[in-house]
């Protein structure tokens, strides 16, 4: 479909990159449908990343994602999920292409500035996790 879900992660918020990242998102042709500054509890982060619970980095990921405020947003563009994954770049910034958000703002494979949904199904689940129906414009 034409929607995806993103988070600007605690590392990027701490460093003052909210404006820069939202600017790159807008410049790439995404419309902001929903937007909020919020913070995940440890339980929220465990639930959001439950799919990674067996991975060795799960504890570190949960601690990182709950340590400070994040920006959550629903974005709209044709082919949104795939287009946004292209815009953010590879998980590890060392592998991220020139011109991507992670190339510019990520510091490591863990602290990589932004999240992007990996499927239409997960975009819908993650959007509902963060936004009430009345906030999904
Ligand atoms: P998301 O958009 O955040 O889902 O990233 P992704 O789809 O590019 O990567 P993936 O879903 O495989 O991993 C989710 C998140 O876990 C990553 O974005 C990182 O923040 C973190 N992560 C992945 N691999 C590692 C790792 O090897 N070490 C650490 N510390 N964190 C990792
Ligand atoms: Mg992922």
TrEMBL record:
UniProt-listed Enzyme Commission number(s): 2.7.4.6
GO molecular function: nucleoside diphosphate kinase activity
Reactions performed catalytically: a 2'-deoxyribonucleoside 5'-diphosphate + ATP = a 2'-deoxyribonucleoside 5'-triphosphate + ADP; a ribonucleoside 5'-diphosphate + ATP = a ribonucleoside 5'-triphosphate + ADP
UniProt record similarity statement: Belongs to the NDK family.
InterPro entries for this protein: NDK-like_dom, NDK-like_dom_sf, Nucleoside_diP_kinase
Nucleoside diphosphate kinase-like domain segment(s): 1-135
Main localization of the protein described in the UniProt heading: cytoplasm
Localization (cell): Cytoplasm
Protein name per its UniProtKB record: Nucleoside diphosphate kinase
Subunit structure: Homotetramer.
Binding annotation for ATP: 9, 57, 85, 91, 102, 112
This protein's record includes keyword Cell membrane: no
UniProt KW Phosphoprotein keyword: yes
PANTHER family membership: NUCLEOSIDE DIPHOSPHATE KINASE (PTHR46161), NUCLEOSIDE DIPHOSPHATE KINASE DDB_G0292928-RELATED (PTHR46161:SF3)
Active site residues per record: 115
NCBIfam families: PRK00668.1, PRK14545.1
Class of enzymatic activity (EC top level): transferase
Function of the molecule: Major role in the synthesis of nucleoside triphosphates other than ATP. The ATP gamma phosphate is transferred to the NDP beta phosphate via a ping-pong mechanism, using a phosphorylated active-site intermediate.
Keywords: ATP-binding, Cytoplasm, Kinase, Magnesium, Metal-binding, Nucleotide metabolism, Nucleotide-binding, Phosphoprotein, Transferase
Cofactor(s) in the UniProt record: Mg(2+)
